Amino acid sequence: MRICVVGDELATGVGDARALGWTGRVVARTHFSRPAMLFTLAVPGETSTQLGARWEAETAARFGPDSEIENRLVVALGRHDVASGLTVARSRLNLANILDVADANRTAAFVVGPPPGSPAEGDRIAELSDAFADVASRRRVPYVDTYTPLAQHEQWLADLAQGGGTYPGQAGYGLMAWLVLHTGWHAWLGLPQDEVA
Question: Which of 14, 15, 120, 139 could form a disulfide bond with 9, CB atoms 3.0-4.6 angstroms apart?
């Protein structure tokens, strides 16, 4: 199995002293029957428009061409659409296009939504997360809402504050990993869920 994670710098765990981020923690808690390859393909400051323009070429170089290899796509959406002033309609369309192309390529997709950031952007990030969730739901693609459970979470907010309000630390990425692991990750991979605690 080859899993490509595409997204912004949050996908790589910026701010995590252990350099694991949520992706490293999730893979560490996932027991594959055969070794899997995980590729984190992140671009700092990237919007969903920019992600949409690059993801297919970058993943094509890493996905396996033969039918014996399972190719999987994790779309890790950040908060840069809000900061750059993209409309929610444009953000929706960008994600829809990514998921539709992945489906046409027979690549199973999994979407992780944007986590909370600056309180001033809270309402707009919440709206963006809801829009992304709707796009994924319409395509029957698993979606992890990281915004709603973390927006008022004391540990998340404290961790974010320590990192200057932009990036979480170890605790914050641990919370994101927990949400991913408990929102359909194992079922999406076709693995038993009894390993998750």
Answer: 14
Q: Quickly count: other Cβ atoms within 10 Å of residue 138's Cβ.
A: 11
More confident of the two residues 151 and 35: 151
Per-residue CA distances from 128 to 48, 154, 184 (Å): 11, 22, 21
8 A C-beta contact, residue 181 and residue 29: yes
Give the contacts of 22 (CB within 8 A, at least 6 positions apart).
Answer: 10, 13, 112, 173, 174, 176, 177, 180
Mean pLDDT score, 130-157: 98
Q: Decide if 90 contacts 132 (C-beta within 8 A).
A: no
Counts of helices then strands in the chain (DSSP H, E): 9, 5
**Is the whole model's pTM more than 0.90, yes or no?**
yes
